[in-house]
Amino acid sequence: MDGLIKGLIDVALGHGDDREEESGPESREERSRSTWSEVVSGEHDKDEGGGIDRRAHGCNRWNAEEPSNLRHEDPPRRTQKITNEYGRTEGSYEQSQWSRKEEDSERNNDDGWETVGKKPQRRQYKVQTEKWHGYKRPANEQEYSDEVDIGIEPSDEELNDLSQACKRLWELDINRLVPGKDYEIDCGEGKRVRQRGDVAEGSLFTWLNEDVFRRPTFSRFCSLLDNYNPNQGCKEVLTSEERQEQAAFIEEISRTAPIKYLHKYLASKRIVSENVQDFKRLMTRLWFDLYGRGGSSYSSSAFEHVFVGEVKQQGEQEISGFHNWLQFYLEEAKGRVDYQGYIFPRRRGHTPDSQTQVLTLQFEWNGILKSVSSTLIGVSPEFEIALYTLCYFVGGEDNYIELGPYPVNIKCYRFGDRIGSVFPIAEC
Questions:
Q1: What's the predicted TM-score (pTM) here?
Q2: What ranges does the record list as Basic and acidic residues composition bias (predicted)?
């Protein structure tokens, strides 16, 4: 009788609900949580008919944004189709604790800007997105920047010395950002390559001038990043709009000094045609044509691997590629990247700081570790494309050069007649 009375009192006072809140939500969250690695590996999206659908079998574009008018419901989970602003179905995804957190951390404004990033020790910043729709239009409907008109002829010394040519490219990168003026980073603490654990209290990027995303080559580059899924063994299917986006990017960077210098350099060595349109087509094929990686055909490209990043699914999952600072910045802003500290430099007395523009670091991308990576911070997209293309055509696997004050080895791996991977290694 005493127990019955006590139970009735608890119900009347709402204590029973309190006890459920203490124990229930955690277990419900545990049941509803769908990790990013499970989503991309396809464990949750099985085709009942036995067939495999790229857009519903874990090969979805996991970073497609959910329309702001959708709201997540409590468990059980359900699969929601995603339709982007162009009316195309981007894919499907499991509504999970991770996706709810991402939705909470992003705000879409009516002025065509997307606010990203809402974490401790980080300022809010905005990324301009309204122009990206136009990048998918046919070439004759695009608006491009004026072509540069400066002296960019390679000298004989540069033609005979790759390091001198790369040094010239560095000087020609007028779009390169200035540390402290255009952005701020906090390198945090250092660690050894095999050391695990987060030694960085905050994020790597603490601030970036939003005007950066008004620059045409930066904006067009960022619009390409969501055209891929991260699963290395998953076949990519590019739409006509995405191909237009690629062509528009190549056209835009071809108007800049680094790419014009690259063309003149390679043409002088009779590696490429002097015809500009032929050169643009070659650049498009080199960076965007799909090839097989991880056992599947048409599952990867040089651009996806080097700049976007991929997830190896064989054995223990790990990140490969992902060497671009803009991709890192955007993914960190959305809470998908967890910066875990820099890797100690090879030489003492060269500890990275807020001014460093060549950084070796460790991070997790949606819970999957990249134990050691390297990136050129603040450089323009056209500079990176020009640098890596030059090393691919003229250099070898190891290319010891100097970029401004930084001694660097540009590591270049070939995949047949393609770029397999290319990235910088700090030599200091």
A1: 0.74
A2: 41-56, 68-77, 99-110
